[in-house]
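Handoff note, outgoing to incoming analyst
You'll be picking up this chain. Sequence as last confirmed:
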Amino acid sequence: MNENRIVLKGTNKRDAAGFLLFVFLLPYVCACLWGHAGVDKDALSLSSGAKKSGDATNYEVQADMGWGVWRIPLEEYLVYKLADVMPGDYEKEALKAQAVLLRTEIVQMLMEEESERLILSGEGLEKWYEMDLAARKELGDYKEAVAETDGLYLSYQGEPIQASYFKLSNGQTRNADEMWESEKCPYLTSIACAQDKAAKDFNSVVTVSKVNYLYVLKPYLDDGYSVEGLWEGIQLTYDAAGYVTKVSFAEGENQIGELDGEDFRHLFGLPSASFEVSREKTQMVFHVTGIGHGFGMSQYGANCRALNGETYDQILKEFFFGTELAKIE
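Most recent structure output, in case you need it:
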């Protein structure tokens, strides 16, 4: 599933099953021959408006591969990451929009840590390390998408944004204000993505046996739950875009448990939190639309916009209201 899991609760900035990698910031290539010297606190300088001639080649990723560290220039790392999260047959402008979002994630981490290093792992990079140099050079449009957006990231009021993306919407992206009931990410507003409904994998059905359904939910409910309440008392609360925000269970007037919509869908491997349920005699059936959390950029929608002639910066402005491009200096 090609998405980055959005932070729905303030204390969790990454999916619990997410990656750890070592991102190392060199102040300048000429500043240290040995790759480790005192770093000026202003070494990572960021400017709004993408008007200055930043040099992203000064930064590199250090990936812990288990057997040792693989040092990768930042822009090269972004090529591999882009190849992992987006289909190669997507339009160049959609790939470029995604490349900017991936770079934005790195910039945000660097600024949050106020350090030259971020601890990440090399999991998922093995195939690129084992690939010979000639093969790595054949990444075509991925390389061009990264090169043509060199150093660019997306900002809001001078700060890098939470660069959320996912594979396919249910026809509408989600409004973050509605989830958090605050203006934490005002640029994550709801927009129509009617073209997403034409995707071949827009609709999906997931069936879960009654036995497994009850077993998975038990740890999340109060001790007083009953099988009948759990099986028949499921209630879904939706946001304005049609995604489930809360799954609750009740027996009569007594509530016996409640789960966040995203947590629930991950428990049962649902492609998205845009779903409806129906009960059969021995199984629960989930009818799902879209793929991913629904916040930020729909990759499929971005590709449709690129096919219609939109450029990567136009695509980003559409999905992230009020943002602008900035550049690493």
